[in-house]
Design a protein that fits this description.
The structure is a single chain. The chain is of the alpha+beta class and 169 residues long. It has a single domain, classed as Gcn5-related N-acetyltransferase (GNAT) (Aminopeptidase), CATH 3.40.630. It is 29% helix and 36% strand. The protein is built from 5 helices and 7 strands. It has a 7-stranded mixed β-sheet with strand order 1-2-3-4-5-7-6, with helices on both faces.
């Protein structure tokens, strides 16, 4: 396995975040609800705000030799009845870096971070039925499918189901 460093991204990482996120959206458009065109329209300030210390989510980056090659975002529900839940979004590894352990390093770091937050009892995510490798990665990291939403997403003439997954903390 390649030496991977996972850390929280900051506003200074916004240019690298733009490149990595756009690459993910272009490589696997069916895996995400946002498309590359919509993402490209975001301003530099909007991207920096996503990575600010007071942002709604925490975005982790996986780096190899200083290059940002993977992403994962955690968002804790804020409504008091749901504040025990953390949602995992936007997990990606650039195509050229797949198979080197970056995805697993990101997911495990995200799980560890969420578990360190007081009151968190579970992590939740949804993975498209077209993303079998991603589902297997989440299962290796302890997530389990608890339900499938049929007809969840329609894109480019295709209908996708989502596998809803959970991990108890």
């Amino acid at each position: 396995m390649t030496a991977v460093t996972v850390r929280r991204l900051t506003p200074q990482d916004a240019p690298a975040y733009r490149v990595a996120r756009r690459a993910a959206l272009q490589a696997d458009p069916a895996a995400f609800l946002t498309n590359a065109h919509e993402f490209a329209a975001l301003t530099d300030d909007a991207l920096a705000a996503r990575l600010a210390p007071d942002a709604a989510g925490v975005t982790l980056g996986a780096f190899v030799d200083g290059e940002l090659l993977g992403l994962l975002t955690l968002v804790r529900d804020t409504a008091p009845p749901l504040a025990h839940r953390v949602n995992v979004y936007g997990v990606s590894v650039t195509p050229q870096a797949r198979g080197q352990g970056l995805g697993e390093a990101l997911v495990r770091a995200g799980v560890d971070l969420a578990r360190s937050w007081a009151g968190v009892t579970s992590l939740h995510l949804a993975v498209m039925d077209s993303q079998e490798a991603a589902r297997r990665l989440y299962e290796r990291c302890g997530f389990r499918v608890w339900g499938i939403q049929p007809d969840a997403v329609r894109r480019d003439g295709r209908v996708h189901a989502e596998h809803w997954m959970v991990l108890a903390c």
